[in-house]
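Example (one chain per record):
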Amino acid sequence: MSIQNIAVKLCGLLQSQSEEEVTAREWRLVGQEQDGSQLLTWISTQDGKDIMNIGVYTNKTKTLSTLYTYEEKLNIIQASVNSTHSLLAYVVKVLPSEESEVKEALYCPFLICLLPDKVSEPEVVEEGSTKQIMLQYVYGKSNKYSPGIRNDRFLLFKHLEYIKIYRTPMFLNECDDGTEKWGFDGIYTETEKIVHIFSWAQWDCANQVLFYIHHRAPLQSFAEGEEVRSPAEPAPTLSALQFHADLPHETVLNIPLSLPHAGGGTGGAGACGSYEDDPVPLRVHDCGIDLYILCDQRGVLCVCHHYLYKALDDSTSSLALDDVDKDSGVNFAYSVTLLNHGCVVHSVLPELPWSLAKSLRPSYTLYEENHLLVSIPMLFTHLIDISPHHEPCCHIVIPQPGDSGPSLAPLLGWGAHAMVDLNTLDVVTMTVQEKDLSATFKSDTVIENKLGIIHYLIQHAGNTELAEELVSWMCVNQPPAGGLQRAMQEYLVCGAYAVTRRSLPPSALPLAVHLPYTVHLAIGDVKAGRCVVHVSLAALWRVAAAVVLSPRQRVCQFAEDAWTRLWAALQRPAPNRLRPSAVAARLAPALACYQPEALSRASTPLSPTTRRPSFAAHDGLPFVELDVCTTSRQEHVIAANMRAVSVHVLSAEGAGPAEAGEAGVHALATRWAGAQLDASRALCRAVARAAAAERHAHQTKGFVFIDELEPAHALILFKLFEAYYLAAEAVAFPLPQGFPSFLTYLGYRALPFHMFMQYVHRNVLELQIDVMKAIIATKDDSTRTVEHKLRLIQLVGEARGRRALSAWPHRAALVLRARDHAHALLSGRPAPPPHRAPHRPHRDTGIAALPSGERLSPLDTFLDLLTAKASLNELDFNLIIEATLASVQDSTA
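Predicted structure:
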């Protein structure tokens, strides 16, 4: 958050323009225009007397122009100037004093001509009134159809009475010497009343839109649970008038509102009896309603409402603040209606002290392209996700330390996210810094807030490095039961969605609405410093009643602007997104019957033909991404995801491949599958880094890396990789090749054997042939170890069991291989090819291989039986002889 002061900056600018001492002081911001210029007043000393100046400053050109100088001090609260800086409209607020006869504050509107060759005095626009009055020039009126006339016009707001359009045309007159000069003959007496009675109004100078709230008869509603109004009771309605350059203004929006503390639209005085003068942005209202609207050209419309209330004991309704004891604490609340999404975000801070709650005033600004930033001074900053690409989710609450803070207003022409404190004129650039996000993530905040930070970093900020770092921190500092798996799932889904959306061609980009963008949509209570923020999301009951003028009803039917985009967003049906849990449910039966040795690599897509990047020396994965089986679990999961995406998109589009686009569906499915694998590899690398298992250049990958780990370190690594495995399985994401074998061997080394067998029986750990060979190759230091290996061999199936026995140079393996060989010959089945590896020699036991006298060798009798049933070419004599000698040796030992 960078800060600069307008008063200091303009004093330096005045000093550079004059050699005399600058005496400017008491700077005040009284308005801003569409071109990014600001109107300010200040007091200076001239000839020993104080004078008041009003000028316009343009930050883009760094120029300050003095428009008019008053000989006395005036309480100018708001002003506006036309585009040529030739006409100035302003409002003077006369406050009651002992010397004057004014009993109440009086608003007096004036207009003054600023033409250089014309000396004019301020002209009274209307008589002063105790009701709030504001003036605002409308920009954009061209002189295309009248070259010699400038059709300037300004709006006059009079609270609870009307909004008028005053016309102040200027004419190009020909002088006697042949030159032409602009002249002004005064305000046209005929005015146009565009709004009759209103309780609140706001002028959006950037888009030239007038928002106002008026009351009219309510529409009959049949929604269950909605408050039923009497037909005689007027309902507040928010409307919007769009002003054009060469066309008449038009009503483009009508929204029925439900405001807890909306003042009456027909009363003679404000609901709270006082006014808050807001020149930037220009708003006309009393203190009974605090409403602010944000709109941009993408069709995003946010209605922000702040209010205080006191809940009843039964928590079913609320009372007005005038009816309850304020000393017991009140609820500070603000609601943000996201009209383009058809929902509203409610935020409540319960039981704040009255003195604190009444001094707080939220500040709202559109942050970057996907968020609404709500700043609550002294408490927190709320980052609301309003991305037009997906539904609102994953909101972030960042504590804001400090004993005091300003209420800020948006400032045009000072860069993105610039806001100003109207009291001190400090310009603040609102930014969400990485250190604040990291500190909030590492605090004791709830898991929903952490998920929102991960979502923001990956999808909107594009900072996957910081997201990986935070996930690694969470692996080290929080147990798996503390939301670690949920954070991993959010990382996987967000990362895959972000990569897919960035890589899709423009023709397939509309299909991205069918992909999942987050896993956890729940929004919970968030602790922010000393208070707790209750955040909830609700759908609008009457979205259809939010009438936006359709493009065919506009005065310019073929122009595209914010209202046509908003209309299109309201007409668009709610997206039917693919749910990762549904893919995982369909994938579970297939994985239960998964047989790696029986599947063919050619039957699944995305078979790697070249080495993956994980073979590079800089990769931090502690294993080699290579499966030694015929096919891999990874390709099985990828094929299921591609199938699920293709079927879901075609069924959701409700058309065949010709209408939905075969190329678009294929591009979406393949890029989603590839992005899933990339996100899974990145998360695996983050988990390995958290457990200090990231491979360095001097270390060996794979099973040797596990053998070098300490038992405690191996157990920690297994628990973290187990959480990663479960997170990927829950959202049906593929695992990197080589990871299942690495996890199985890690579990064999880190867990007790009975627990390891539980993982194997439940198909969590896979006994691939590379794992079996590694386990068989371990030292046979006890009889129990040999029994454990034999139990594993019994579980892996016939083919892998034979391969494992062939790699095990132990007597038990020799006996089992020989028995299997003899059983195959005696049963008439074709014997497996003999194993050509050299056998381990056994010491002489004193038994001859051939008959000697009356003594017959058991081996000779057994060989006679075999040779009678099978051909000599099928016999593995070395295997049978060594197995028999080993068996005899064990029996005589």
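Caption: The chain is about 30% helix and 25% strand.
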